[in-house]
Amino acid sequence: xxxxxxxxxxxxxxxxxxxxxxxxxxxxxxxxxxxxxxxxxxxxxxxxxxxxxxxxxxxxxxxxxxxxxxxxxxxxxxxxxxxxxxxxxxxxxxxxxxxxxxxxxxxxxxxxxxxxxxxxxxxxxxxxxxxxxxxxxxxxxxxxxxxxxxxxxxxxxxxxxxxxxxxxxxxxxxxxxxxxxxxxxxxxxxxxxxxxxxxxxxxxxxxxxxxxxxxxxxxxxxxxxxxxxxxxxxxxxxxxxxxxxxxxxxxxxx
Length: 254
Ligand SMILES: O=C1O[C@H](COP(=O)(O)O)[C@@H](O)[C@H](O)[C@H]1O
Known about the structure:
Elements: E1 5-10, H1 13-35, E2 38-42, H2 46-56, E3 69-73, E4 75-77, H3 87-90, H4 92-98, H5 120-137, E5 149-152, H6 168-171, E6 177-180, E7 190-193, H7 195-198, E8 203-208, H8 214-220, E9 241-247
Parallel strand pairs: 1-9, 2-3, 2-5, 5-8, 8-9
Antiparallel strand pairs: 4-7, 6-7
Helix pairs in contact: 1-2, 2-4
Bound molecules: ligand LXAUTJHC.
């Protein structure tokens, strides 16, 4: 039996970002109360980054012990480490603020950049090893740490992380992290978790806003079965549940 899917609709992007931020703080507090630490997989994208900014601006920021939060990424653009295209650089809107709130930078696990690795595949292999080490350190069997929350944006074409429709990455099997070439959305080189890795997370949150996302969301959440290789957003789920956190424009065809 698959875990339950939830669809939560908010009026607009700012309201959705505020709601995602409130959920994230609560999820971290709950995970720390249950297991001592929390592991969160971050996403890039418009709403993903707006949600991190909303956490940074939240009055609840001080209620979290940020020294016991592990951060990972679901995908990354394979560009120079300082490039504003990098999801990890964009996430500094929150991480930079958390430095003054006890953030342990040793727990911030960004994917490799083009000045550190020759190819996206090398960066992917290094990230897969890092994930294996983290899993082993926390005593988790298998090659991945337990992700409490894994956040994903969704593109208008239904891509999640850097798994694009009808593209090699979406069909990749057997790996947890892959290099992506010829991404239909620039930049062309990327690193991404695979479906196999994403779907181990306790909770998967798809954070989706904007009218341009409505057709893809309608198909991904529709009654008709669709292949995840064709509609990647339809192929992600958390072991304890999947939450679509959306604004009304993106949910217009759901
Ligand atoms: O390229 C990417 O795009 C998606 C969605 O971005 P959006 O701006 O359309 O919301 C994002 O989720 C992914 O992490 C990123 O690398």
